[in-house]
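Re: folding output
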Amino acid sequence: MSFSGFSEDDIRKLTKTQEVNKQHKVNKTPVKKVTFKSNNTINTPRSKNILNNTVSAQRLGEIQEEFKKLDAVLSTDVKILRQQIELASIEYMEC
């Protein structure tokens, strides 16, 4: 038999949770939070290795970005120098 769409099991579960809540209020015992400590701390060799790898990867990324910037600057400098050499050679040939 169901009561407004709820099965008997649902009603039993609801009343059980209500009873538990009432007991907590009567006893005034706070619900304790359970915290778990991880066994993997930063001091383990594997953790240190992973940390070193991530730091190395970040450094490598920064270095690659710097190389890209330097490559762009060098490309424009070479382009300007080639244009100047070409102009100088044309002027020399005209003389």
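--- second protein (sequence, then structure) ---
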Amino acid sequence: MSALNSLPLPVVRLLAFFHEELSERRPGRVPQTMQLWVGCLLVILISMTFEIPFVALSLAVLFYGIQSNAFYTKFVAILFVVATVLEIASLFLIYKWSYGEPLIRLIIAGPILMGCSF
């Protein structure tokens, strides 16, 4: 008697769906799935270790960074680095110019952070 006979029908269908999606009839799916899984695991572990907020944003960058096309992967990585450098540099300049005025710093930093995010 098979173990699948004792499971409910929706669970069997779900397992069959996963088996079809991850089968070797579609080459490249298993390695890409494992790459995403390991990447997500590392991002979550690093984010939890260093108490980085917005883990979902880090995972979104990971999903956009791991593309099937190498051009898109490099393009997204370069854009991410450029946006991060611009954001940090602009925050340092804001901190330098508005050292004694925290309200002005907050008012200016908000739009700059949103602009660098998009």
